[in-house]
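Page header: ASSEMBLY MODEL / three components / 940 residues total.
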Amino acid sequence: MSSTSAPLSAPLAARAGRAGRLAGSPTLRFILRRLLAAIPVLLGVTFLSFVVMNSLPGDAAQELLGASATPSEIHQLEVKLGLDRPFLTRYWDWLHQAVIGHLGHSLSSGQSVSSILGSDLPVTFELVALAFLFSLALAVPIALLSARKPNGIADRLSMMFSMAGLSIAPYVLALVLVYVFAVKLNVLPAIGWVPPGQSISQNLRYLILPSVSIGLGLLCFYTRLLRADLLEQMQGEDYVVTARAKGVRPWRVLTRHALRNSLFGLITVVALNLGTLLGATVVIEDIFGLPGIGHELLQAIDNRDIPVIEGIVFVFAVIVVVANLAADVLYSVLDPRIRYGQPSE
Amino acid sequence: MANLPSDLVVAGVAPSVDEAAAAKAGGRWRGSVGVIVPGVMVLFIIGLCFIWPIIGPVPPPTGGSILNASLPAFSPGHFLGTDPVGNDEWSRILYGGRASLEIAFAVQGIGMLLGGLLGAVAAYLGGWRDATIMRLLDVVIAFPAFVLAVAIAQGLGPSEVHTIWALCFFSVPAFARISRAATLRVREQTFITAARLSGTRFPRMLLGHIAPNILPQLVTFGLLGIGITMILEGALSFVGLGVPPPAPSWGNMIAQGQSTLSADPRYVLLPSAALFITVVSFNLLGDGLRARWSNQ
Amino acid sequence: MSGALLEVTDLRVDFRGGGQVLRAVDQLTYSVRRGQTVAVIGESGSGKTVSSRAIMGLLPPTAKVTGSIRFDDVEMVGLAEKTMRSHRGRGVAMVFQDPTRSLNPTMRIGGQIREAIQTHEKTPRATAHDRALELLELVRLPAAKERLEQYPHQLSGGMRQRVMIAIALAASPKLLIADEATTALDVTTQAQIMELLRDLQQRLGMALIMISHDLGLAASFADEVVVMYAGRLENASHAPLAAVPGQPPNLALREPGCPFTPRCPSATDQCRQHMPAFEEHEPEHMWACWHPCEEGVAR
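Prediction written out in full:
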């Protein structure tokens, strides 16, 4: 059991293990570097949206007072709201408050932007989370069944249906679902929202149709992606041949060997999707009357409510940046090759 | 798979490993079916939407009389019936398709040219130029483009052209990413080094050597993106951008049909079906071409 | 010859693809007795790996196998996949060339060895764990206990190959096929692994098929040498062999005659047009050639 290399390798292995568990300093440095690079992006995004919103005709004062207001009334309100100050001053004002977490107040309702976000974000998050859950829970078994016998019946059927599912617009699906389940069958509600605090079952009932509308497209996409990766593993990788040479049953090779390696890639993609998905919720929230971020955004643009818009844009951008970063980091953290460092010999 | 650009992710279709294998196993014809059938569908749809209204007996999509409102399908002279203000539904489908397709083609075309160029140049030049361009693209990507789209609608007023601009905001960075990844791969190949060493100048390098090698990927990405763009156009119609009524586009027809969904679902179902068939055809075509080209 | 553990008779492997048929192995015949070491030598493309995969039933679905492979008096060609699986690992086991890619990077060593054990016998995890430890010690892997918890990339090439051997031995196979098992390793490690294999073979009474393109290695370790060229058997004996200049032929464009013609200094028209038969021309020495060189002299 003992050899001359044992005493040397043991502490080395232990150190590598510990460092690995701490995500290793290279990974930490990587994260810091990416976060730093994200700052100009966040600045750019918020500045850009500020520019865009201010270039639009009309402003919050006009929207609040309506079409019949006189120019002097409008101007009075503008001064009161601080809208008469120069453009860059207003941006700077917003920015230096935002970085410490003070996102200001809505110009139309006076409510603090943070509290608006606080009540709206969870709704959107729950919707997105349910959509992901639905799609992933089904994608994995379907992809496994497809990869088991490539070009077999299960495979062809699932590929056909997933191609169809990918080609349906989420809002079309939403309307069709509403028509079938709410109008004709009357088993699920079409519009509305019940907070989970009030009643979890009702809360979920109102979210079924919207999350399936978003989730179906995701399901089809993830199924195809996972299946392709599984096939690549099964057909191209040497360790699969080793497993078969051991006499391992094909299903087990698929689930215990190929799936492990393919899941990494899938998780990365899911993290990347998170950013783009937030935008997709806008229309769905509109159709189902869900009081989420998308809905809030549309209203705010209508009202020229700049602090609310900036707040939402800021949060969106942060989520996108973090999600992209997480995708890269997850891949390196989950892959034991990187997590546990170099060979210790 | 972390190398997959997020836009391929957004594009929503995964590489098909076995199609290439099947094509190899089945001889020369097997691989072509996946391209010919959807190709014919696509041509048929384009012909129907662009050419048929000009040469065939199709009534105008707008200006219908309220006396003809909401006629059912197979009424005389209106084989799909009419909409709530009396316009022929079949005509609206055809003209709506034309508008949606025009927008999609324009957006993808501009994306391919502008985005493709940007990405290829960034990848080829490398260094700080590459980094700067990519950072700028990152800003665009992190930007909730929907905000921009709605803002354009509010500020400039909805129109087909403005919709195209708004959607280019999505497509140009997506193409730039794909083009950059593809160019990076091509750049490493020896024939590029050889051309460089023999003194080929940059424009010729780009056009003569890089472009032909990244074009297949850009084209398949573009085809797969047609479906996405058409779906996005519909989403924009829901929030007020898109083609302004009464001129039809499949997107605004679906959005408008929402209000009469329970009473008469066909105003949603007909353009939805048309949209679905078109998107499937373009997706199958893009997928088939990609399988074919990756084979070689 | 019913005492032989493995009898390959007239093995033919064709690959269908793109409307073409590629014959990778043609009329291969040889046998391996219990405890014997046979080296299968050939250049790349000679069909040596394909023939060994055929013995394990590990060829892709595009391959068509005809002929006979009798292992322990059981016919393997045409065997149902389920039965084939029970042979893999237990009757015949294989060690591959590239240990880096042949081990699952996301699974611990211990798990991979345990899988080899538990696939053939219902063994509780703890027992399998102990057996895995035994196996690692058998292949002389230092710090075996720690290694079980590690991932493949944490080990060096030579160590990984030892793990591969341990996995192969897990179900006590009667025949071990080492497919270029030492090619990816440096010379010193190569020698160590070969020594290990020889030692194990003697201890366990296992038969060994060594597949290699290294003539020297084959000569020092094998009882019998089988030479393959372009899918066919060309030479089987104990005589020393020398390397020949030139390239292996393209298997997709086969000529009617002997495939070695372009590289052969003694080639004549007869060689170009007629394929020589593989026969025993001298005791213990078989070949397929119209103009064999004189005894002991290679030109």
